[in-house]
Give the backbone structure.
Amino acid sequence: MDNSYHLIIVGAGMAGLCAAAEASEQGASVLVLEKEEKFGGSSLLSGRYMAFAGTDIQQREGITDQTEFLVADMLAVGEGKNEVDLVEAYGERQFETYQWLVAQGVEFHKVQAVSGHSVPRGHTITPLQAITALYEKAEKSGNVVFKTQSKVQRLRKNAEGRVAEVVYEHEGQTFTATAENGVLLTSGGFSKSEELLSAFAPQLDGALRIGGAGNVGDGIRLASEQGAWLRDFPYLKGTFGFHPTADGPRKSQALVFYKGAIIVNKSAKRFVNESISYKLIGTEALRQPDKLTYQIWDQAIMEQGVAGDALYDFAKLQSLGLIEQAETLEGLARKIGLPVEDLKETVAVYNEDVRNGVDRGFGRDSLTHHFGKPQPIDQAPFYAMHTTVAMLATYAGVSVDRYAHVLNPYNEPIEGLYAAGEIAGGFHGAGYMTGSSLGKAAIFGRVAVQSALKKQAVL
């Protein structure tokens, strides 16, 4: 059975659904193929933040921000390993995309200070609400056909050398569909592929695996067969902040260290500057003895929790029994099995350094990337959470340009092939700034559609 569309999208997470909604607005005929039973993928498991600058939400909070600051922060967190052109393209399109998402019915609730940002810039969404709004927008247009439980087996080029055919399996049968304008891969990464993680990131063997069930690198294999080059694999890192039970049904996570907590190992010693990216913290955490680490904080920090927030709802985590509490540091140390005197000394030295304005051990002078000021941990009661590293998303993949073309090893576009979202490499570099994953998924999902439809000019 042959079917012809202007565009075929492989994967229905944030990038794929933004692409579908964008294409539907332009009147293109679209086929969206999703391997899993439900839409969303790893986007549904995300920390709920999108990185935008200069928004109305920021303005209402009195936050001064602009695109230049956002781009500078991304490049700084990426340690100069990012593809600058991709980051600048994000900056050029970020505000417009924020407004577009609002117009699609995506609800933004508030803005938070999160990892890698020099000002509060993490715009919170409810992922399911966003995914649903985008799906409904595309579906109601009548231009988009959605097929779930449809696994793409191969891509094929036409006689002109363009990627134009998609072979997929649906309900036990094999079909071939044709894309006149192009094929867009938005199929996520490979955080659930032990084969690929072992091959490309053996240093992460101790990290939990909690990504989307379908994230096993299918799209990367499909693109590689067509000649795609790969980017950023040396920088694969886990995410610090998860409770060890997060590989179960509840993905419990808390970034208390961005509100002022310290992080210690099994010897009750700090080992990292807690204000840096949680990706970089994760790398250091996996190097600690037995990979055991804890966040330690006090009542003043506890009161900075944000109800309903996926990363900062400390009270909820305590109600689930994931946070320990004690009236003294001695009692807390005994509860979690840390050496009492060592924990007392670590906290005392940290408090002294905070009061003197110089962290002699690790140079911490902010809460997260130049924003906020550390405060002493000295107001009882005291709290702790056993915290570990998880592989939620891989942030490495096929090489793309600012127009979302997939590139070969010579930086030449592979005709007819586009990629957006987690599958695309080159954007994050050596670090990761919170909110930039969902942000780039939305931005480059739309960019890919605009590139494909404009280039072929069949509409």
About this structure: The chain has a mean pLDDT of 94.
